[in-house]
Amino acid sequence: MKEQQPEVLPTPTHVRQFLTTDELAERLNVRPRSIHKRYSQTGAYFSVRPIKLPNRRLWWPIDTVEQLTGAAA
């Protein structure tokens, strides 16, 4: 008789590392337009530099945002 192995559920291998501009605005309690304006003037939002996607959207790195807000990882 074969011994049955417990079924192993897959674990997520992709951990989200970026926020959208709307998510960043919500987290910082500002309007998305404020973030876009500062980004267009300085290339960053309070020293947080996003990744610009081919579709012109911005991805903001979560680890840098957490340093800005003082949130623990």
From TrEMBL:
Keywords in alphabetical order: DNA-binding
A GO MF label: DNA binding
Descriptive protein name: DNA-binding protein
Species whose genome carries this gene: Paraburkholderia podalyriae
